[in-house]
Give the backbone structure.
Amino acid sequence: MSEPTLEVRGLTCSIGRRTLLRETDLTAPAGTSLSVTGPSGSGKSTLLSCIAGLHTPQAGTIRVGGTDIAALRPSRAAAWRLHTIGFVYQFGELLPELSAVENAALPLLIAGRGRREAYGAAESLLGELGVGEIADSPASVLSGGERQRVAVARALSTRPPLILADEPTGALDESTTDDVCETLFGLPARYGCALVVVTHNPVVAHRADLRLTLRGGALHSPPESAPGSTPDSATDTTTAGA
Ligand SMILES: Nc1ncnc2c1ncn2[C@@H]1O[C@H](COP(=O)(O)OP(=O)(O)OP(=O)(O)O)[C@@H](O)[C@H]1O
Ligand SMILES: [Mg+2]
């Protein structure tokens, strides 16, 4: 069997006097999605920061696309991240003065691709994600749903094996949340990436192949699969797509 896209083993992370993650394991094969819910302040965003190599944990190993991120030299980390991990945040976090296509092309331009190639690829992606018609609109005028789709296109632009989304629907109404979820949770099957979504919305969490809750420093698997179920019993099943 091929190596999983994301493999976390024995991750322990403390900030100040609080241990947010205690010997945590997590695995996400290519083409699968997992969601992480949990109380505010439980450490969900910190978990994503550790996975992205933006926060150094006290212990454990994190491998993304076969690379042990602790072994990355700092001078290589940014370029590695550019090609390995795509990010989607709560408000899209687009550059407002740039158009949708310019935002989506940004990682490719930073990666050194020519303008024609970068804009062509970004425009194709926007079309594939259903927002091709707003390619030339400034990001500042986009609706919340359009913004998030452009953010997804930007995250995908370098075709990274892993997409991390932190509260990607936190600023959207119910119907737009459904639309953005359709796009987001379709990515693993369509593009072969692994997807990790942090959310407070149980309906969004339920869309993932594997649903986990972070509580008391440990990842728990909910006992039942209904959306909104209370995930309060622990198991050691932490492999998406299992
Ligand atoms: N750089 C930092 N310096 C000090 N404390 C931090 C730092 N980053 C996170 N924390 C603390 O770590 C804890 C976990 O934060 P984190 O942002 O990971 O929580 P979260 O589960 O994502 O919460 P939310 O659902 O509200 O986004 C919080 O108590 C937070 O204040
Ligand atoms: Mg957070």
